[in-house]
Amino acid sequence: MSKYLKIILIILILSSAEMFSQSLRKLNNDGVDLYEQKKYTEAEVNFRKALEKKGDDFTSNFNLGDAYYKQSKFEEAIKSYQNALSKTNDDMTKAKVYHNIGNSLLKSNKIEESIEAYKNALKLNPNDSDTKYNLSYALDLLKNKNKNKKQQNQNQQQNQNQQQQQNQNQNQDKNQQNQNQQQQNQQSKDQEAKQDNTRQQQSDSKISKEQAERILEALKNNEKDLQKNLRKVKGKVVKLEKDW
């Protein structure tokens, strides 16, 4: 290969690389313009196209994460930020990525994980006031969350105790009702037995008409015999002997 041909090839390669770089840069720049215009969905499309050209590009991954975040696609944003995190070795840049990861986690209500992300950011950039503020805010949220959870547990336990007491009272009421019902049933049985006994006694004490007539006839006969005997006694004369 001649010297001139080598030079031409080098120029072509450099030119191609420059064109590729310009194309990638244009996609990102256009995406940023759309992002600043709050056209987050269109910005996302540009950043995706940039990643199709160069998947390990830090800027494209980071910008895509921002576009996702503005669309409340927090899970996707976290993944994009994590991809960007692995594409840089600069501590200040990593701190910024961790800060954004913390924000996405906090928006996802993953408070404990967001706290860890903010702490990682502050390890790399201890003077970042925004991250300090967000960390303090997340810690307060966690404190309130734990407090509310404790209160909920106490309320739940109290409700369970009240329910148990209510069930116990209902069982006692039911047992008392059963006992009262049994007592009423027994009283009814005793009353019925007493009434049956009274009716039996009344039945036993009753006499038939024929029996009454026989008794009356017997009484009459007895009276006649008694009168007859009395007359006999009256007819006799008792002889008194002189006692001298």
Automatic annotation (TrEMBL):
ATP-binding recorded as keyword: no
Record keywords, A-Z: Repeat, TPR repeat
Basic and acidic residues bias spans: 206-228
SMART domains: TPR
TPR repeats: 58-91, 95-128
SUPFAM superfamilies: TPR-like (SSF48452)
PROSITE patterns for this protein: TPR, TPR_REGION
Coiled coil feature spans: none
Protein name: Tetratricopeptide repeat protein
One Pfam entry name: TPR_1
Bias (Low complexity): 151-187
Organism: Ignavibacterium album
Region of interest: Disordered: 147-244
Presence of the UniProt keyword Repeat in the record: yes
Transmembrane segments: none
